[in-house]
Amino acid sequence: MKLTISKNKLNDAIQQVAKAASTRPAIPILGGIKIDVNHQFVTLTASDTDISIQSFITVEQEDIINAQVEKPGSVVLPAKFFVEIVKKLPSEEVSIEVGAQYQTIIRSGSTEIQMVGLDPEEFPILPSIEQDDILQIPGDLIRSMIRQTVLAASTSEQTPILTGVLWRLHESELKFIATDRHRLASRTTKVDVDSNYNFSNIVISAKTLNELSRLIPDQNTLIDIVVADNQVLFKMDNVLFYTRILDGTYPDTSKIIPNVFETELVLDTKKVMDAIDRAYLMSREEKTNIVRLATMEDGQIEISSSSTELGRVTEQLEAKEMKGDPLRIAFNSKYMLDVLKVIDSEQLFFGFTGPMRPIIIRPMDHDFSMYVILPYRTTV
Amino acid sequence: MKLTISKNKLNDAIQQVAKAASTRPAIPILGGIKIDVNHQFVTLTASDTDISIQSFITVEQEDIINAQVEKPGSVVLPAKFFVEIVKKLPSEEVSIEVGAQYQTIIRSGSTEIQMVGLDPEEFPILPSIEQDDILQIPGDLIRSMIRQTVLAASTSEQTPILTGVLWRLHESELKFIATDRHRLASRTTKVDVDSNYNFSNIVISAKTLNELSRLIPDQNTLIDIVVADNQVLFKMDNVLFYTRILDGTYPDTSKIIPNVFETELVLDTKKVMDAIDRAYLMSREEKTNIVRLATMEDGQIEISSSSTELGRVTEQLEAKEMKGDPLRIAFNSKYMLDVLKVIDSEQLFFGFTGPMRPIIIRPMDHDFSMYVILPYRTTV
């Protein structure tokens, strides 16, 4: 293998795939980036047990020559050092030459780097995925669906299935659900797909979805998504992103969600978020994050928290609408803030069915998002 | 105590003093911020065992009214919560009222906070300092003198005196020296002061000097510095910063600095920094940071590092000037980069007296800075 390549193009591709290289690889090859060179493409691949990312650099793109390939071939280079050194090379042009035993020489300006390369035959093979049904979703939409659900996924490895986000496709509606048993986030969208194409129990790690989010280009292009038996493939412009589907059965969450309420509130998102944020500061000192919400006589609500050592925060807030029974309820303010930060609507609906029953939060301007937070059982 | 005060003014003053409040106070009062209110000033003070910071808000400043004082008085409030909550208060105006047992009520908009205040009589008293001799130094200069020396101070508490920067005033020349026994940084400046006013063995914690740096206003105003027996006081516009002088005798460093060289180099700062930075990346993987420098026949130097597992980086660099014997030397590249990053000159002088003797680094355009790095004893 021998080629000269644009430093920036190489660096961009390295940055895209690097996240999939193991930082503590079980065997050295898993901590590497594979480079495959032919006369059309320079392809970079990194893969740990959960995700694989592949990025393509076109050798000649219209009139732009990104690389000059003298001899096709492959090599695997240790990711960590390779990622850092390419960024810092002195010239805009980088030459890479692989010799005997995958000994690799990288040259740029008056810098010469000898690297111990590894055998590309030992690199993991990417899953082969049959691309029968393809979901096409705009990049911005998938990014906001991820952002609006991952917050409720569990971070505890005790129940691995809950560290993921559940994907369901039913009658051309795609639904994401995440829950850690204390709170739940759900987000749906209509997709342009044959209504006979359905799936359920597809669960993807929330951490992986966050990685995917970072790779989705800022230009709002369509992302092709292929859901296979145990893998999902995301196809972006010049990047392929493969992720494993989590094993296990996602719990049925439909029963915990009430749809008749004893108390209903409509609140201004920014105002309620700021008020809870101040109460949270005090509740955090108690390490409980308990904040209380109470309806008052005059269409106001009171938000409060207290700490035995520090004192008490009391906030008054006008409800845009208030219906039903008077209410006193306590909840984890951190969980509530997580929801309020991502919900992207100016006014919110809050539905309550008494102080011991789940709190429902929904945007006022659409039906695509729904959040549930379980209250604290506390003497209010 | 009862007053109304501008949230921004209060917040600025809190941010200035907060660093001096203990984060893990031995007694609660040391984790507090003291507020003293009279009809001229609202004064905030925080103090741990090492530093004390005081910030003044003028009640009426020309035509601007920063505070309305109804009843003078004092209280101590727990710093951590107070710092965070004031920032987030909803209105531009904050009222503070202290009642029985220092119970404090803070109001802003429709937010009410009750805080458990502490007795100001129990708060540490600031050192009284006789202000006979005052050093006046421009803020920018003191900031760059700090930045250009603290890097060489020790971070190990095993030799506490070396965690400080030595200050010496001799014949109107102020000199800062820092060393951790592996490297040394020195920076001097002429000061406008009576040549009979001298001091030596004034050692101030490098960490404290970094804190001071952050408080020095961006406008390049003069800072008044008062050096007393065991305290140094820095007087800025509306802030007083007191620091303890470290106990102990600073070692005599003058003997380790050679002034006759066997090999002399002049190098372009940016080029040598970039080359060493790339070599550092590989040396770091070996956990040694060893980088080698060798003079070559043709007026070039070679900078290199190697790792048994990864490979080798080799850099060639043209010397602007080269005099004396051929040289091969090895050093800690991290220490060298620390120097190259702060030295602020386009070309640098490097003086060598053989592979086992200290390396001297000086800017080419002035004599105010000097750095020493001890080489590694290694088979080059």
Task: Report on this structure.
Two copies of one chain form a homodimer. By secondary structure, chain A is of the alpha+beta class. Chain A has three domains: 2-122, DNA Polymerase III, subunit A, domain 2 (DNA Polymerase III, Chain A, domain 2, Roll); 135-244, DNA Polymerase III, Chain A, domain 2 (Roll), CATH 3.10.150; 257-373, Proliferating Cell Nuclear Antigen, CATH 3.70.10. Chain A has helices at 7-18, 79-87, 139-150, 206-215, 269-285, 333-342; strands at 2-6, 32-37, 41-47, 51-58, 60-61, 64-65, 67-71, 73-78, 93-98, 103-108, 111-116, 135-138, 164-170, 173-179, 183-190, 199-205, 222-227, 231-235, 239-244, 263-268, 290-295, 300-307, 311-318, 321-324, 328-332, 347-352, 359-363, 369-373. In chain A, the strands form five sheets. In chain A, strands 16-13-14-15-28-27-26-20-24 form a nine-stranded antiparallel β-sheet. In chain A, a hairpin with a 2-residue loop joins strand 13 and strand 14 (173-179). Chain A is elongated, with a radius of gyration of 26 Å. The N and C termini of chain A lie far apart (71 Å). The mean pLDDT of chain A is 95. Chains A and B meet through helix 2, strand 11, helix 5 and strand 23 of A and helix 2, strand 11, helix 5 and strand 23 of B. Strand 11 of chain A pairs antiparallel with strand 23 (311-318) of chain B.
